[in-house]
Amino acid sequence: MADTEDTKETQRYYLDTPQKTEGFFLKGCGALDWGMKNRLARIFNPVTGRTVMLAIDHGYFQGPTSGLERIDIQIVPLIPYADSLMLTRGILRSLIPEATPKSVVLRVSGGTSILKELSDEGLAVDIEDAVRLNVSAMAVQVFIGGEHERESILNMTRTVDLGTRFGIPTLAVTAVGKEMKRDARYFRLAARICAELGAHFIKTYYVEDGFETVTASCPVPIVMAGGKKIPEIDALTMAYRACQEGAAGVDMGRNIFQSEHPIAMLKAVRAVVHDNETPERAYLLYSELARKD
Ligand code: R5P
């Protein structure tokens, strides 16, 4: 009797099955703490390793941008189709339903407007407020080559330091001044500087020539920024190419909320990002959904 009980008890320890040590699914993030990884896994889908972030933070320097005049009416209905929302604390507190299951990437740099020099930003949110808002990451604009390059880089490193104390990752947003050339050489430089100095993921624009060298030389995930509104098929093509060339998804704003059919567009972007659908097939999906809209 005692022997049988011993055997059963031994079985419960599964002595023949070594404990697995799983790797983390995001590039360059394996050595982060549990809280950081858990927050990143709310932004990036652990199955596809990619994200569709909806960027609606434009008002922090340019006021009520076209398509963002009434966030309650124009944006809240889109939330179910995004993986993550990138926005300011003002919009989060005033207009986003608290019960949303979606992760939040909080814009924490600011202090300038379109009326003045944009690179002259500071940190505009206290880390305590980011914790209070339960955000999954903090976003800081970094102006490499800009007038206030140094300050913007130090805004980013300060955010990384503060976020590390509380397990909150930092997204470095590479901002391109009007006078700067948007090419692979520039984005390699900007993305790598941000990663070297501790950013956990980076947002850059897509460039047709050499984007894969930007993603390859950046040791952490890159998400593609959308930029100005372009025809839907072109935006889908850009998102598709970015993902095929190493981006871990997109952080798009105007090409979604300025589309005539934002939900259809968001679904089509998801198809490209998460299902590797070709831009042509995704555009067909967009057109079908738009017809029923
Ligand atoms: C701009 O600085 C903001 O960070 C936006 O989040 C960013 O530009 C992405 O939005 P869009 O796809 O409209 O360029």
Strand order, main sheet: write it out. Answer: 1-2-3-6-7-8-9-10
Helix content: 40-55%
Mean residue pLDDT: 95
Rounded to the nearest angstrom, the radius of gyration is 21 Å
Which secondary-structure class do the elements indicate?
alpha/beta
| SSE pattern, N- to C-terminal | HHEHHEHEEEHEHEHEHEHEHHH
Helical region count? 13
Shape: globular
Low-confidence stretches: none
Q: Could you tell me the number of beta strands?
A: 10
* First-residue to last-residue Cα separation: 70 Å
Which molecules are bound in this entry? ribose-5-phosphate
Biggest β-sheet description: 8 strands, parallel, barrel
The proportion of strand residues reads 5-15%
What does this molecule look like?
The structure is a single chain. The protein is of the alpha/beta class and 293 residues long. Helices cover 42% and strands 14% of the residues. The protein contains 13 helices and ten strands. It has helices at 2-11, 34-43, 59-62, 71-74, 89-95, 127-132, 149-166, 184-196, 211-216, 232-244, 254-257, 262-275, 279-292, and strands spanning 51-55, 84-87, 103-107, 109-110, 122-123, 137-142, 170-174, 201-204, 222-225, 249-252. Strands 1-2-3-6-7-8-9-10 form an eight-stranded parallel barrel, surrounded by six helices. Ribose-5-phosphate binds at residues 55, 57-58, 86, 173, 225-227, 251-255.
